[in-house]
Amino acid sequence: MPRRTTSQRLTLFVATFILSACSPSPPMTETETDDARPNFLFLFADDQRTDTIGAWGNPYIETPSLDRLADAGFSFRANYNLGGHHGAVCQPSRVMVNTGMSHFRVPDDMSGARLLPELLGDQGYTTFGTGKWHNGRESWLRGFQNGTAIFFGGMSDHTQVPLQDRLPDGILGKDREDGFSSVLFADAVIDFLRGHTDDTPFYAYVAFTAPHDPRQPPLPHRDRYYENRPPLPANFAPQHPFLIGDPMVRDEQLAAWPRTEEVVSDQLAEYYGLITHMDEEVGRILDVLDETGHAENTYIIYAADHGLAMGSHGLLGKQSVYEHSQRAPLIVVGPDVPRGESRAFTYLLDIFPTVTALAGVENPEGIDGHDLSGIWLGERQSIRDAIFLAYRDVARSVRDDRFKLIRYPQIDRTQLFDLVVDPDELNDLSEDGSQADRLAQLTALLETWQARMGDEQPLIVESPQPGAIDLTGAERTVDQWQPDWIVEKYFERTP
Predict the structure, then answer these.
(1) What is the pLDDT of residues 215-224, one digit of tens each?
(2) Domain 6-19+35-384 has what CATH class?
């Protein structure tokens, strides 16, 4: 009997789900329980905006593999990274994914916390990791039994990524560099999937470094979007109108001030090229999952660590609490997952308890996340009524189903947006006298969420800084990871 493709099996899943809803399922036997434990394949992008998936409404980007997942599974369209306490927002984001806890409670190296792969491994799962791990070698070794092409760092030239393999004796081998990051990580998990022939369930973690800069997709993918350019973000601006933390954080130095439409257009084309190239590698992984027969009993989770500005609000990075920077894709595909989507508020830290629930593993005490399976099963419409966001001591935010408050303690500034009519956060209502009660209500809600998440940052400071700033002509420093053509194009070329 030929193996079913991912699309075919997911059609069967939906039909099975409908039938099972009409009649009670018999209890599993002891043998069935062991054999039926599901596998997990976690695909994790780096710096991917939620508006860069074709199936989610972007007609300018080519993402057939991500579309394949979205068309077959369940999309969480209001998913967020809670924030970060320094410019490398990816570190705390990955802490929250792997511990299910707020980054206010767990250090970046995740010491003192139980990791998701560690927990699954203790329950008989075979665990495998490849790609980016920006949280220290000790935590990786504690979490994963197997792994190749592991990158311990935040970023690198995509063609010169220093990689290590876990050797049979449990130690990490010497560094190696031998190809493009997305291809190497896909190759690693493909080898694992083909080699996993026993009956133990597996948890495979694939953390791409794309589409994080350097924005250096292979030339065909770069040219594709130079020739068919995506539009600039609706909230594009030459500069941010006031100070947000460190205006010279590395991400923001990747283009001169004021931002020009030409430069942002080029960088968007390069960014889209990285996503499409990564998408091709995701497709290779999904094909092998089908070919090996693992797809029948595997939950696929696709997510990113956070978003990215890419010209929105005059910014390039993720160091803010605007929607474009802290929302993150989340798609789940699997045996009982129907095709659909939800606007329920979710966090990346919800992935942890969702996986443990599906695996039948008890959660450690103190996690902040919630199991999301009840949403795709139709058992509940939401799990929280608001979203709280935080960046360093710079910004705090809370939003409900319509309004979003942002508080900047260090410059004594507040923003208020009506996201229903103003999803791009362009029209600040904080000075509108008719919104005084709403400001007070949302501020109280913000303080409640701070206490819930362990955040002790005061919303008012004794000596606020001036908020005015103009970076026109500011000197920039190129980092060591940018390839020569990017250095020449964006740092050395005279405007």
Answers:
(1) 999 999 999 9
(2) alpha beta
